[in-house]
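The instructor's notes for this session suggest beginning with a concrete chain rather than abstract definitions. Hand out the sequence below and ask the class to guess, before any prediction is shown, which regions might be ordered.
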Amino acid sequence: MCDTFVATPTGKASMLFGKNSDREPNEAQAIVRIPAMDHDEKELRVTHLSIPQVSHTHEIIISRPFQMWGAEMGANEHGLVIGNEAIFSKVAIKKPNTELTGMDILRLALERTKDAENAVELIIGLIRDYGQNGWGGYTDKSLYYHNGFLLADRKEAYVLETVGKEWALEKVKGFRSISNAISIGEKFDRSSPGLIENARRNGWVKRGERFHFGKAYSDWFFTSMAKGRIRQQTTTKTGKSCAILGPSQAFGILRGHGVAPDGAFAEYDMSSVCLHAQGLLTPSQTTGSMVAEIPEKDNPIIWLTGTAAPCLSLYKPFFFGTDVLNAENFDQPGAVMDTSLWWSHEKFHRTALQRKVDMASVKKDQKNFENKYLFQVGEISRSSEKIRGDFSRKALAEAENLENGWAKKLKKSARGKQSIFYRWNWSRWNRKAEMSFREP
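After discussion, reveal the predicted structure:
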């Protein structure tokens, strides 16, 4: 499950985008830069099928489940940024794994278009031509879903929500968030020709009743269990209440836990924006987080945790045109514990889930670290490729040192109170990830 939001520019402010990607606890998320390329090959293999390749693809920075071709969120060199959401509908999904996943669609749009309007048209065409029935899970073999997208560029933003080959589009002004529920209602700017007629034909809209996309098409059970509407209400309320909404405030939204106190990891449920897995009723957690600043003219700035649990992570700045996140330079995570950024952080993260963490100290370090880089990042973004790359490398190194310090403090902390079921689930996940570390 996931949460995505955007704030369109006002005055001199930049387009601001944020997303938490919620996946299975052991589904490591890779952050990677893929440079612009020209292509001679005729076909492209995505997650479950092959489609025609294009002659040129744009430079992208993405955050993706390690085993998938597509991405949960990302941006391209032209300032286009996209996040997707699983949404659950009354439209049945056939499951032969012959069509696209939402993550395939997202990456294809980033690689092949320069702005949000053209990305919308590409996505509509992909869904029309190839459909969307690709399995979207990791170990959960039953996870198939439809997709909602939040797309933004330097000037415009759109919500595009799709069910099968039907869709509705809303142009965004101001603050807007989406989650794991259809959020478009009676008002939308465009829709697929058959959207309303299909709902009436299936009896999802009563005679004389005004068409409401979410009410007509939403599946009740999975939409309710995912608690996406609750999380969307939370992000919307928080975002609209900010007198100033910049990257620092966006980090705070994505670290939110609702009414539960920070650090009470075993108490959170699916209503938490910064999601922590518990077991059967809360099987997912935030495995990656991203904030993007897209100014009208200057270079985009992409802030990524590259790790799970934003409340226990640091947002690091990255830029296009540098090789910092190239796969050959930056260790990509696999299925089990390794030397990648994601898994290295998991050793600390999973120990913290069992301990009483000094969250006041963590928050202080987060504020000092991120404010330091926020203060410098605008000027750095306009500097040379080398200066930008060195800035990102410095942030990665300093973040590692800070998180190592947090890990040392855990050695002096007491164990938290968790249920037997909670401890059993995390023990099981740790064994599957071949995490044999001893708790401090």
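Then share the key points. The chain has eleven helices and 18 strands. The chain has a mean pLDDT of 94.
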